[in-house]
Every structure is written in C-alpha cells, then in structure tokens.
Request: fold
Amino acid sequence: MPSNRNQQINELSQDNEQEVQSEEGSEDQMIEAENREPTERDILTGQNMNEICQLEEDREAQLISKRKLRNHFDEVMAMRDDTKMITNQSFHSRIQLLDGDFKSVMNPGVATIDAQALRLLSEAQVQRTRDLKTEIESFNTDDFITHFTQLLGKRNTMDSDDDDDDEDHVQNRARGFVDWEKAGKRLMRYSRRAPTMDVMYGPLDIEHKKRKFTQRTKVVKDPTQKTAPTEVAAADLNKVREETIRLTNSIRQNLHRQPESGVNFFKFFINPNSFSQSVENLFFISFLIKEGAAAIENEDEDGNPREFPIILASEIMSKQDMAEGAYKKAQVIMELTIQDWEDAIELFDIRKPMIEHRDPTPAKSK
Reply:
C-alpha cells in the first residue's frame, strides 16, 4: 500500500510540472507574438477589415442620402399637385437642400432620384407661373377711382344711396372731394413723382388704329425708254465661228514658224498690251492641244523638270492614232489672273506679243 501511495504522489507531481511548463511556454509564445514584427498576412487582414468597415460606412451614408432624396421627391410631388404651396422662398430653399444632399451621392441610381426631383420642381414652378398669368385681372379705371375716393376722400362720397349713379356722375363727385395732401403723403413712399398712366397694372382702353387705304398710282412706263435684248442672228453666229477658226489657224501657223525645240509657253500666248487678248490666245491654244496640233512639255528629254513650260507644234492626230491611244492626253485647268499676267510680263521680260495684236471689234448699236 505505501508503494502505491508513493507512486500516485509521483504521478501528480509530474503532471503539475508539465502544466507549469506548458503555462510558461504559452506565456513565452504570447511574449514572442507581441514582440515579433507583423507579417504580410497580418497587414492584409487589417487592410481588409478597414476596407470592410469603410464599405459599411459608405453603404450607410448612401442609404441616408437616398432616404433624404426620397423625402425631397415626395415633398416636391406634393408641391406639384398643389402649386399654391410654392413660394419664392420655399422654391429656393428646396433647391439648396437638394444641392446639399446631392454632394454626398456616389451611386448613379440615387442620383436619378435627385434629377427627377429637380425636374418635378421645375415643372411645378412653371405651372405656378402659368396659374399666376391666368389669375391676372384687367385694370378697371372706374373701380380704381371708386376705391381711391373711398380711401383718400375728405368724406365718404360713396354711400349706399349712390349705387344707382351713373359713371360720369361718380367721377365728377369724386373729383372735388379727394384729399390730395393725404394722398400725396400715402403715395410718397412708393414714388417721388406722380406715376403716369402707362405704368399702371393692366391695359387701359386701347384705341384701335383705323387702317388707311391709299390708292396707289399706276406707274406708266415710257415706251421710248424700253431696251430690247440683242438679237443674235444665224449670220452673226457664222461670223463668230469663222473668226474663231481663222484665229486658231493663224496661231497654228505662228507656232510652226517657231523653233522645233519649242518656245516659252508664257511668252507665246501672253499679250503685254491686253489681258483680255491673252485670255483669248490661251482659249485658242486649247483647241490646238485638243486636236493634237500643239503640245506642252514640262520636262526635258532626260525627264528633268524645266524652269518653265514650253509649247511646240506637233502633227494632228489621226482617228486611228486616237483610237489606239498612241498619244497620251492630260486635261489641265489653268487659271490666269491679272496679277499672274503682270508677274509673267515682268518675269520673262515680255515686250512684244508673239501672237499678233487684234483691234477690238466695235459694238453694234441699235
């Protein structure tokens, strides 16, 4: 028995030592955990908790903003249904409240509530303005005089016995019983001078202007002053056609007399004495180029660009050559202004025209 007792005592002592060691180990672990640096996992866990808290706060703020805007929307709906509730002060204060609550809105869905409330508020204000316009009454001169004499008269001239008086009699009686000194003192707060009738609220009697009918005098044209359009006869057209052919052939012959290597294009067609004839020469040359009787080159034999274009005579293309495409055609639109004409004369020192100068054709008089 004593041996068993000793054995139990030994076991209990060993268990107590193990518990003490485990407690000391846990305390050491807690001290080490407090002293060690935070790991990346601990940092991320803390950040996630902060983000979760921030999201909860934002969600709560959005719910509060939505609730406020809903209340504004309901109140604006009531104002739109009863426009008499709207005053200038309430309208401006409602706008300021909506602007203040909208600053904390971050959700587009909540922002639409604010937009709808603003739209309804503007519609309510427009309806209130229309209602004010429809409630306007026209200004009645007789009522104004009656109320004026009742308020500012020396004595009550409008008693119950005068209800049957006509309008003229009422105005005549009121004219001599007005306390103008009293009226002036009462009205000086509004104006330093007497207002004219045109500033009163509402229109007075309008005198419609009568339309004046005036008889217009008929314009008689002098038959001697009439100008008839110039008639172009077939003979005149034939003359113009013959003159064009003659000048074109003359320019072709002139071009054949030039060197085979060609001549300066500007020196050839520009007439230093007449800008209009320079334009005509260019027009006639275009016919020669179209027929293949003349050619304009911008490059030399080696393909290098020239300093100025040259024009030279060439053989007229046959129909077979035109059909086979033996010659290459290129359409060019050339612009010639007076400034270009003067610059070319100065640049190339053009003194005499290479194409003969033509005397102007006298105009026919009828």
